[in-house]
Amino acid sequence: MDSRKSVRNLAQSINSLIGFKAHLTSAWVTSVCNIIRNCPAGGAPAAHLVAQRDFEKHSSVKNDAESNMDVLRIQDELALLVSYMNQLNAQRRQLLNEFLDLKGNIRVFCRIRPTVKGCDFYQLSPVVPMNSSGLLLKVSASKSKHYSFDKVFHPHSSQDEVFSEIEPIIKSVVDGYNACIFAYGQTGSGKTFTMEGTPESPGVVYRGIRALFDQMTVSNQKLIVSFSMLEIYLGRLKDLLVPPSSRVSDPARPCLSVQADPNGGMEIDNLTSIQVSDFEQALKLYRLGCQLRSTASTNLNKTSSRSHCMIRIKINSINVAERRRETNKLWMVDLGGSERVLKTKAQGRRFEEGKAINLSLSALGDVVDALQRKKCHIPYRNSKLTLVLQDCLGEDSKTLMLVHVSPEEEDLCESICSLNFATRARRIHLGNGESQDAKEHKNAAIISLQRKMEQVEDERQETRRKIQKLNKTFESFTTTSKSPSLQLAEDSQLFMEESKHGVKNVQKFPSSELPRFMQPTVCSTRKFGVDMTFFEERSTATSRRRSILHQAKSVSFSFKRNAACSSDCSDSGISCVVDLNLNSNADNETEHSQGTAECDIRTAHFQMHGKSSKCSSDREIVPQNHMPTVTSNSPMRKGVSSFPFQKGNFRISENKKDEVTEYQEEDKSDRTPSVEKNPLNFDSKSSATLCHSNGFLEEDIDCSTVDFSQVRQDFDNYNDEEWGTPMPATYNDAECLYLYQTTRSSHASQYAKNDDAIETFGDSPSIQNLKEHTETIAKGSKALFHCHLKETRQRQFSQRSQSHRALFKDELKQDKASIPIVTPRAFSHGGTGLLISVKLKIQMLYFCVLMGLGVHRPWYEDDFFHGLMH
Ligand SMILES: Nc1ncnc2c1ncn2[C@@H]1O[C@H](COP(=O)(O)OP(=O)(O)OP(=O)(O)O)[C@@H](O)[C@H]1O
């Protein structure tokens, strides 16, 4: 009896010590008691039972020993194979390197565009391809000139053929080299076709990104890839991942500027850099950037690129042991077309664009010339183009120039210029003359290296297969040999880790494998401040993949004072930036307006969300509009929070006053009746007050005067194709109201269709103004308006979140390289991340101990668990 009492007391002491009682429901205790009941009968065990147990124990020990031996054997084999694989990887790298060195650090390919006039190419064209590396240019009837390049692509060469020659350079980027691939040539010669391609036959950028990710998967290296895209337009750098409306509407946003980094590389300050984890994400960004390129119709090309378009893929290596650099870059550049102004008859802006392009191409020529002559001064600084590419045009990088020529007679002059330029570039690595013997020797070496590379590749494939097979066997051993309690303890640990880091791996921890008492209750979900939705099994594959950084959030809001509505619905909605800049001076800045000194590399995490498991809204985050999450490896750090907007739910309502944006109903009986049935379901005599602590929007809204249908209709008319990225097709009433409010705000009244046209609203535009404006939008600038709305929304959220910064300081200090994860609920319960983490740890330990006790039941009865309840 005494021992029972002490057991009860022990449970109560534990409760009072860690305040855990609140989480223990009767269901929990019943589950634990059931476990105990299912164990062999209580009391003193019968002798035969003891004997049987001893026998089982003995045989299980024997089996355990055998399986342990097997596991050890597999582990040994695996270790051997992995080390062999590493050797093969190193060998492959070395061979590829030698191969590229032999082929030259600067390689020049020539691609001849098919003729557009449909004439007999070989007879009439002045450009005649001779073999795989030479072409003949018929300058006149009696005179012709021979050019040779590393590769000549005939007019009928496919995009596949072109890319197969480029692929080794892409692979070398994964091995730690800088690389630059650029398309050069006169306007209309096919540069954009080669780089961008068409949906049916995608170009080098598409294939390059895919090859890069494939190579990363194969080489099994931990690499962080980030994507940037910019253009050099009229000598200015423009971020192509920032919509023009945002560039214009935020005068505080600094221009992009090129700076030398301490490692001798070049860095572009303020350039949006978005971390991508797979090919699809990078591709989406690329498409987005392409939409924003400056193109125009000229005499020579209907869709002429009026700028140099530059795609940068930056690769940061975590394990640098086997790589040359920690960070390296791949530039893929679609240069603007060289053109003769007389020929294009360009005027005004087109003339200026052509002039700027020609100037920078000429600067590129000077740099190439200086490199060729091995001058001590290389005039990189003469143009933005050469400055940006500086670290990829040197000796230690792989450069590939794709020169494009038109086969038309009338383009002969331009073809001669382009081919001469390319020949000059090629001399950099070839020297002025190479004997025939030397050439043959080199070719033989290249072929032999190619064979070796193929052998190594085969060997790698085979080894990879073996490793996979062994891994499977190993997994089957380890899963069967684990005792249930050990498995549970490990899973619990996993849960702890995942909760701490915000990682939600649904497959690893499905609720069906958990005892009921380990499953979250509504109460525990609220109390812990951790999103427990990941316990729920997802029915579709798409809903399984969730962003690491995404934090689902319960939202509650109230329109009517006494009728708060709360929802546990987790929506993969809009992620907004929580600016964690530790420099207080920059408090009011968005990621694009950071001071350059504070930010070396700014990486935005672009999140691709699938459909929410519970909610119907399916939204994609678009960089800058919904502003990607931003991190930095400089002292400035940023984290992520989510901001779900969904139909019916309006604002996140939290306890802290400075974090809250909520609508409260105000009784204003003198309001005029609603224009139409108010979609917000406001009483026609009501108005809403938008309360922002940051003062961004502070005014009463007379809801009865807002024609929501007009606002919504306008946004519904918005065409996704214009923007190139899927957008929500409809806007809910809350967003309409927000839009309306935004247009009334003096802080957010500038919209621009392009650089030339800026429309500005006054401080208090009337409804008429708003309607006029929405009509304007309907005529052509919906997308920009849309961007503006999102940017405004993001900025507001970003500012609101800055009050959290201090709370992240500890995390930031601990791990500079990792991405800070924000668990928003932690704040709403008034605790710091550390406190909650410790608390979670204790509670989990407690669970494990109880489970252990439940299974082994050394000295107590069910009373112990009942004691926990009292
Ligand atoms: N190899 C090719 N096969 C089929 N069509 C091609 C090829 N190269 C170019 N074209 C076509 O020629 C036209 C002009 O090509 P493109 O726009 O790529 O030229 P560009 O060099 O980028 O011109 P600009 O410098 O003015 O932008 C396009 O319609 C394109 O589809």
Automatic annotation (TrEMBL):
**Do you know which Pfam families this protein is assigned to?**
Kinesin
Which PROSITE patterns does UniProt cross-reference here? KINESIN_MOTOR_2
Composition skew (Basic and acidic residues), residue ranges: 654-674
**Which SMART domains does the entry mention?**
KISc
InterPro entries listed in its UniProt record: Kinesin-like_fam, Kinesin_motor_dom, Kinesin_motor_dom_sf, P-loop_NTPase
A molecular function GO annotation? microtubule binding
Could you tell me the Gene Ontology terms of the biological process aspect for this record?
microtubule-based movement
Q: Which UniProt keywords apply?
A: ATP-binding, Coiled coil, Motor protein, Nucleotide-binding
Chain segments annotated as coiled-coil in the UniProt record: 439-473
Q: Where is the Kinesin motor domain?
A: 105-428
| Family membership noted in the UniProt record | Belongs to the TRAFAC class myosin-kinesin ATPase superfamily. Kinesin family.
- Protein name as catalogued: Kinesin motor domain-containing protein
Q: Which organism is it from?
A: Kalanchoe fedtschenkoi (Lavender scallops)
